[in-house]
Every structure is written in C-alpha cells, then in structure tokens.
Design a protein that fits this description.
heterodimer, A: 336 residues, six-stranded mixed beta sheet, two-stranded antiparallel ribbon, 11% strand, elongated, B: 367 residues, alpha/beta, 13 helices
Chain lengths: 336, 367
C-alpha cells in the first residue's frame, strides 16, 4: 500500500498487490468480453489507464469495473497495480458505478444490458431500479422490455452467444427463453451455425413445435429425426441450401399431404417439358380452381413457337392428368 | 347454463324475463345504461371468453332480427337466413368461431320480441320459401330452461306456410317443445360428431347418444329432423369414426324423418388458433393440414376434405339413399368429387334445400 489519495466522492487512488484482488468474484461484471490480449499490448505500451475500480471485501478487494484490465496485468506478470478504491459505497452505489463505467464508455450489448438491469435491481433496497438512474445510465425503462431483457443473461450460454453474434434477434431469444433449456440450446446452436433470417427461424421453431404436438412427441425428437441436431458449419452457399433442405423436411412432415401434392405436381409438370417460355402454376395451396399459364415472348416467331407448344400441351396426357388431379393431390390414378 | 353475473339494459328492467332470469340464476340484476359497461366487465376478466359464458346481458337487438347468412363468393352458400335471437353460448367447444367473432363475447339475449315478430310477419308475407335458423350466433336451445322463446317461435311458424325454422343445438332441451302444435314448420337439428371429438373438443355439451335419443323423441312427436356433421375433424382413422357415427344416427332415427344432413369440415378464422391454443391446451385440432382458404379462413387441404366428405356421404347414402345431403361452404370441385354432382345442376343449393324443406315440412308457399 504505497500511497492513497481520497476524492470528494469517497473514491481514492492507491497501489494494491494483485494478489489482494479477487478476480474470480464477478458479481459486478457487466462486460461480455473475456479476451485481454489486445489490452495487454496497450497496457504494456501506454500503461494502465484508467485504473480499475475496486471495493474492499473480506480483507482484500473485489472488482467493480476493470475485469479485463486486471486480467491483462496478471498476464503481464505485474505484482501490483494502481486502483481506484471505493471505500464506503453501498451495494447499490457500487452497482451504479459498475454500470456507469461500462455504459458511459460504450453502448452496452443486450447481454450487458441484461446484466446491468439485474445487478441494479438486486442491489436496490426495494428491488426496483429508479427510472431516473436507469435513464442516466442509458438503460431502458419500459417495464415490458426490461422484464424480457432481464431474462437474457439467465438464458442458456448458447442462446446468449447467438445474441452476441447477432445470429439470434432479441425477439427470437425471448422465444427460446420460454423453452426447456436443452431445446433452446439445440435451436440456438442450429441458428448460430446456419444463420437463417428471423422469419425462417420462426418458421422452423413453429414447425417443430407443431409437429411435436401433432405427433405427441418431444420437440427434440423432431429436431433429431429431421436431422437438425447434426448440421455442420458449412460455407455460405451451402448454408442456404441446408436451410432450404431443413425447411423442406419440416414442411413435408408438418403438411405431408400438401407437400406430396406439390411434389406430384412438380413431377407431372416436369414431364410436360414446357421450356423457358411457358410457366404453369397451380392455384395457391391447390385451393382455388384456376391454374395459371404464363407465356413469355419477344417476337412473332416466339408466338408461333408457343402456339405449337400449346397445341402439344393440349394433347399431352400428363397435362390432362395435371388439370384433373387436384382432387387426389396429383397422385397418379390407378387407371392412368 | 350457469350464470354468475346478470346485466340488464336499463330500458328493459321492468320486463318479466328479467325477474325470470334473476330467479332462475339466483343472482342480482345489475342495471346498465350501455353495453360498454358489460363489455368492460367481461374484457377485464383473466379469461374473457370463459367469463363471457357466465355473464348474461338482457338487452334489445338494435339491428335486424332476420339476416342473410354471410356467405362468400368463393364457396357455395345455402341461402340460409339467421334469426338473431342472442349471442354466444354457455357450452364450450374448442373450435367455436364465436370465441373470435365477438369482441368480447358475451351471452346476450334479446327481449324486443315484438320487433322480431314484425320482421317475421314481413318475411312470411313474401310467400316464398325461406329457411331460418337461430343456431348461428348461439345454440338454439340453451335459452330453453328459462325462456319461452322456442315455443313462441314454433307456434308462430306453425301459423304460416312458406318459412321453416331450424332449431340447431348440442343440447337435449326439447321436453317443453314436444307437445306444441308445430305443423312440421320447425326442424329440430343436432350437430353431430364422433364420440371422440365430442368428448375432447365439445366441453359441456351432451353426448352423441343423448343427442340421438332426443332426436328420436322429436321425430316421435312429428318434428322433421336435420343433422349437421360440422365441424368434421380430420385425423388418422377419422373416416371409421364418422362411419360409426353415421351408423349410430340411423340406428336411432328413421331417415324418412330427416330433411337434410350437412357436412362441413373444420374451418376457422386465423385468430381462433391463438385462442384455442390458450384455452384448450390439450386440443390438437388446429394442427391438421390447414391452408389459407379463399375466404381468408383456415381450411383443410382440399383433397383431404374431398376424401372425408366422400366417405361420410357414402356411409349416409348406404343407409339413406334419398336423404338430402349438402356441403357447407364448399366449391363446385369439392361437390363434384364428394357428392358426384354440382348444386347448380339442380338449380342451385338454395333451391335444393328449399325443395327438401317443402317436401319434408309439407309447405305450400303459394297456398
């Protein structure tokens, strides 16, 4: 303890041995960053600035702010470091300092915001964070939002990782947060690997849930049986194909008759060999009565070609099967 | 019907029905100046839909009593007319569209019957066949234990020759109706389903056997009958279950008493899905193969509907070849596949049903 200088708010500067600082105690940790290699280089070159903020605890000190700085100094082999010491602050004041040191320096990410809200509410005497304090710290005050946010840092690690990476939106994280931990982790792992859009994530989650209810099985069994537990981490082009394949598998299982009709329709249409100038579309979900034929042309010669092609189509037995097959999902009738 | 709260429109507080309801349900009558007070009380409940089934609001119908059934151009409508006597239902079917139709749903019973009578008189005076029913926005007979509405309507319809009244129900509340002079102008109708669907999805309704026994009693007292397989719930093995229901129907009722049998597969407004998931967590019926119908409702994939209709119609025809079967809100393609004809070929569905009514109810509009 080489020197000490007290400020007006009870914060003093002093030099303390690193061994006196309990860096394992993370009760005030806000940051989600762990890596300190870059910080080591900076400290080695320019010194420790500003010093970490600590508070006395059980004969030593706990870190209020500066976890990565302390780790970096430990990694650099320092024996002691300058600190800013909060000598007589209450638990709530320490929490305010911990959040302020982070939130006033940079925007907090969602997990950090979640940690900040939890820390402050737990430290507040009545369990409620004053709106004025929240606003001063740049934290949200809307009750609905904060109650959802607070759950984030208690969610499975895989979900939190997905949020930090941007693979999972806040909305999807909240949805996963309502699930049993193993299932939430499985979805989060899948979405972190394949990074589908939010709409596709929602479709996958909803399909799995509906298949599970429909078939009276555990959703994890659906994930497993549809091969969703074992996706690899492919390159971007393959990722899109994998997402497409997963959605297709889930659709086939959730809507077997509809999916079979689509497949049958596509197979019949392929046999017509329509070429690029003609498109034939079924009614939406095969519910309406009308099919749509689209003809693309640029010249009179194209139109003549199309006329001949349409004549061929009218006489093609598969075309008739296609137009009359809607009622049986385009399955080949026994007589055909 | 169990009523926890009784509200009465201030302008109707002296009506005898108010005292009848108060005595029947043993609850005080709360006089209100506007419906908003009732809606607010229901909407504030934790389960407004469930609560709305125990809140009775005696009021007047401020709109028309006779309304045309809201069909859609995409599907064939039967040209039915709704006789709007009240709203909502004290029974609790998972699939009930009324849960999402009224905001919030409340049991309302209309007391301005003089105006209803006037509208009916005007309709009777047209001397053309009309089919009317009270079972669209409510169950026709849940009101029976404490009102004389059905008796009043039966007598009224018995006094004319062009209109037929259909009382559609899942109850067996027909005792007070049996000896009325109905002149076959009233059809007693029951919704039918498989025993499994009734057990799992139709909370608070009567069993299939009870409905069929009641129907047989109605027939024994000369009432024409109708049956509605609606909603048909498609699931693995459902065809066999529906065939069994058909068998039980004809074991209980002679087909000569039947005016018509309708078939309608489960369809619902998309908003109902969330209601159903919340209020009927055990129910799996929304997890069928539904697609978005042309009328904005969710409907089973068309080939599935066609197949189940075809199977049930075949079972009915095997036992009752000449009974009138029709499909509720389906298109020509489904009619052709399921029943082997399209309604337009016989002059349209409305005409087909008018003729069935005229035949079975001995009607003589011109006379």
């Amino acid at each position: 303890m080489a020197s000490e200088c007290l400020g007006s708010d009870g914060e003093g500067s002093r030099i303390v041995p690193l061994t006196d600082i309990d860096s394992e105690d993370e009760r005030f940790r806000i940051t989600t960053l762990r890596e300190s290699a870059g910080l080591q280089k900076s400290i080695h070159r320019f010194g420790l600035c500003p010093p970490p903020l600590v508070a006395p605890d059980d004969g030593g000190f706990i870190i209020v702010s500066g976890f990565r700085r302390v780790n970096a100094c430990q990694a650099l082999g320092w024996n002691s470091i300058p600190v800013r010491l909060l000598r007589s602050a209450s638990g709530y004041e320490l929490a305010l300092k911990a959040v302020a040191e982070n939130s006033l320096e940079r925007p907090l990410n969602l997990i950090e915001t979640s940690r900040a809200l939890n820390l402050l509410e737990q430290a507040a005497g009545d369990g409620r964070l004053a709106d004025a304090d929240a606003l001063a710290l740049g934290l949200p005050t809307h009750r609905g939002v904060t109650s959802q946010l607070k759950r984030l840092c208690r969610m499975p690690v895989e979900v939190q990782g997905g949020v930090l990476e941007g693979a999972l939106s806040f909305a999807m994280a909240c949805e996963l947060g309502c699930m049993e931990e193993g299932l939430a982790t499985a979805f989060a792992r899948l979405f972190r690997r394949l990074k589908p859009s939010l709409n596709k994530q929602r479709e996958i989650v909803s399909r799995v849930a509906e298949i599970a209810v429909r078939e009276r099985i555990d959703p994890r069994q659906v994930l497993d049986e549809c091969g969703l537990m074992h996706t690899t981490g492919p390159a971007d082009p393959e990722r899109n194909q994998q997402i497409h394949a997963i959605r297709r598998r889930l659709r086939q299982r959730r809507y077997p008759a509809v999916a079979a009709a689509e497949d049958n329709f596509l197979a019949l249409r392929q046999r017509l060999k329509l070429g690029e100038m003609i498109q034939l579309a079924p009614p939406r979900d095969f519910e309406g009565a009308g099919f749509t034929l689209t003809l693309n042309f640029q010249t009179i010669a194209d139109v003549a070609h199309l006329r001949a092609k349409l004549d061929e189509l009218i006489d093609h037995p598969d075309f008739n099967r296609l137009l009359t097959g809607k009622g049986r999902g385009f399955e080949e009738s026994s007589g055909s | 019907m169990k009523i926890a709260e009784l509200y009465v429109d201030a302008a109707l507080s002296e009506r005898p029905e108010v005292e009848a309801a108060r005595r029947r349900f043993k609850v005080p009558a709360r006089i209100v100046r506007s419906a908003e007070e009732v809606y607010a009380a229901v909407a504030a409940a934790q389960d407004p839909i469930g609560h709305g089934k125990r809140v009775l609001y005696l009021t007047r119908n401020r709109g028309a009593f006779v309304k045309s059934c809201p069909g859609t151009r995409h599907y064939t409508c039967c040209g039915y007319k709704i006789l709007h006597i009240g709203t909502f239902c004290s029974m609790d079917c998972s699939y009930c569209i009324l849960q999402a139709y009224f905001h919030p749903p409340v049991l309302q019973y209309f007391l301005n019957h003089d105006e209803m009578d006037q509208e009916l008189e005007r309709l009777f005076a047209t001397r053309t066949i009309h089919r009317l029913g009270t079972g669209e926005f409510t169950d026709s007979l849940i009101w029976e234990p404490w009102t004389d509405l059905s008796a009043r309507l039966i007598r009224k319809f018995a006094g004319q020759d062009s209109c037929v009244l259909e009382l559609k129900t899942k109850t067996t509340e027909i005792d007070s109706l049996l000896d009325l002079p109905h002149r076959r102008r009233t059809i007693l109708a029951w919704s039918l389903n498989t025993a499994e669907v009734i057990r799992t999805e139709e909370r608070g309704t009567t069993s299939l056997d009870a409905r069929l026994k009641a129907a047989a009693r109605g027939a024994a007292h000369g009432y024409p009958l109708a049956f509605h397989f609606d909603p048909i719930v498609i699931a693995d093995g459902c065809e066999a279950d529906y065939r069994r229901t058909v068998e039980r129907l004809f074991a209980a009722v002679d087909p000569r008493h039947i005016v018509w049998i309708s078939l309608g597969a489960l369809r619902f407004m998309p908003e109902l899905k969330a209601v159903l998931r919340k209020r009927f967590q055990h129910s799996r019926i929304v997890y069928g193969e539904f697609i978005g119908g042309l009328d904005g409702k969710m409907r089973y994939f068309k080939p599935l509907r066609m197949k189940v209709y075809r199977d049930i119609a075949a079972a009915i025809r095997a036992r009752a070849p000449s009974v009138c079967i029709y499909l509720c809100m389906e298109d020509d393609e489904v009619w052709q596949h399921a029943l082997g004809f399209q309604p337009d070929s016989g002059g349209g569905l409305a005409r087909m049903l008018d003729e069935a009514a005229a035949r079975q109810c001995h009607m003589n509009p011109a006379g």
